């Protein structure tokens, strides 16, 4: 863990208008991957607008790597069906964390990440100073599927003894 920069807490808030993969609904869960790490939320039964509100934490060694998110429909007797995927870049968020902001008023927007054809954001995403921390809320449009979005919130956790973000 010599090259650990810190931890990224990803709050998987909810899914919106997810694709139906079973007879009349889906049993969705989210898998988040970065490099060799793979984390997943719990399954929400029969809901195409699930509320997970679940925190997943990734160890960040290279903030240039994208984070992959895939939504699956849990099936008991067959392979789980894919319900779309998205990818997001944490570099704008990391740049804001590196600024070492301290005395900003709560709710100050540090930077804005526009939704573009090359990212999966469904709307502009703001990196904000909130409760003494750098936070980014984002809504990702799922690819390779007819519909669906996933709302996330990013938050940085410094780890004592890690390399930190100053030297990267």
UniProtKB/TrEMBL annotation:
PROSITE patterns: C2. The keyword Repeat does not apply. Keywords: Abscisic acid signaling pathway, Calcium, Cell membrane, GTPase activation, Lipid-binding, Membrane, Metal-binding, Nucleus. SMART domains: C2. One of its GO terms (molecular function) is GTPase activator activity. GO terms for biological process: abscisic acid-activated signaling pathway. The keyword Nucleus applies. It is found in: Cell membrane; Nucleus. InterPro entries: C2_dom, C2_domain_sf, CAR1-11. It holds the Pfam family C2. Residues 1-106 form the C2 domain. One of its GO terms (cellular component) is plasma membrane. Belongs to the plant CAR protein family. This is Calcium-dependent lipid-binding family protein. It comes from Perilla frutescens var. hirtella.
């Amino acid at each position: 863990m010599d090259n650990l920069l810190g931890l990224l807490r990803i709050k998987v808030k909810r899914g919106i208008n997810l694709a139906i993969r079973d007879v009349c609904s889906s049993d969705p869960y989210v898998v988040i991957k970065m490099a060799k790490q793979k984390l997943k939320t719990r399954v929400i039964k029969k809901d195409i607008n699930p509320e997970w509100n679940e925190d997943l934490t990734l160890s960040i060694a290279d903030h240039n790597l994208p984070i992959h998110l895939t939504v699956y429909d849990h099936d008991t007797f067959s392979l789980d069906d894919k319900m779309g995927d998205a990818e997001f870049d944490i570099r704008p968020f990391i740049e804001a964390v590196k600024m070492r902001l301290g005395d900003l008023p709560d709710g100050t927007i540090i930077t804005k990440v526009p939704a573009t054809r090359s990212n999966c954001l469904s709307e502009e995403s703001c990196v904000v100073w909130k409760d003494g921390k750098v936070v980014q809320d984002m809504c990702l449009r799922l690819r390779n599927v007819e519909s669906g979005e996933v709302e996330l919130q990013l938050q940085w956790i410094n780890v004592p003894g890690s390399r930190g973000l100053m030297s990267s």
